[in-house]
Design brief:
Elements (H helix, E strand, L loop, with lengths): L2 H20 L18 H8 L3 H8 L8 H10 L4 H10 L18 H9 L4 E4 L5 E4 L1 H6 L11 H7 L1 H6 L3 H16 L6 H13 L1 H8 L9 E7 L3 E10 L8 E6 L7
Antiparallel strand pairs: 1-2, 1-5, 3-4, 4-5
Amino acid sequence: MTSLEESAQRRALLGGFLRAHRERMAPADASARRRTPGLRREELAARAGISATWLAWMEQGREVNASPQALARLSAALDLTGAERAYLFELARRSDPAQPEEAAASGVPGSVRALVEAVDHPAYAIDRGWNVRCWNAAASDLFVGLFAEHPANLLTYTLLSPQAHALLPDWGDRAARIVAEFRADYLRGMADPETAALVEHLGRASPEFAQAWAAQDVAHREGGRREFRHPVHGELSYRQWTYIPAERRDYKVVVLVPPSPALG
């Protein structure tokens, strides 16, 4: 992908993202008859203190030199979550004035591998393309079929593997959430041919991915209760915890811990 193609793709993604979230916003006068859902461009522009023409150009994918301060006001007007705000700034190639700069890095960190191997419960680490770069024996036992492919990819496995469909009793909800979580990481690898090929492949092969991707939802990969229906061990329940290494923020370490009175 050339730099011009990547810039055009970013602008198109930004336009679709802004339009989708504008149309979700409730107007001040909900009883008024409207031809379009959500806020009008003029209404959102007024809330954000920006030009309605400027907003229209952004939604149309035109090149607009948006300042970080204007993006911050737009984010607040759209009531974006932290993950959605970070995605907006990444799309616009601007630094969020509310967040410190993060250094980019590459390669598999030894500290992450050591942590994953030291945990007794299922644990694994994914890169920004959601390839599983290291895992322990407990994770291999839990995620039936995940590591049969090389490289193992958590997104592909969840959406396309019949074994994942059988393993996850709440598969529909998990599939939608994992796509929203992946979108939060997507921009940093968008120019990577493998990441682009992954999105294209899943868009063709998985209707669930295509629908969730079009919804423009963005979410951080957070913890919570995770249920499994294992073919050998039966019903299993864990609490998922996700950690971002301080020295390698493009990696995520995921640990699944059995519930306890302290954890719930």
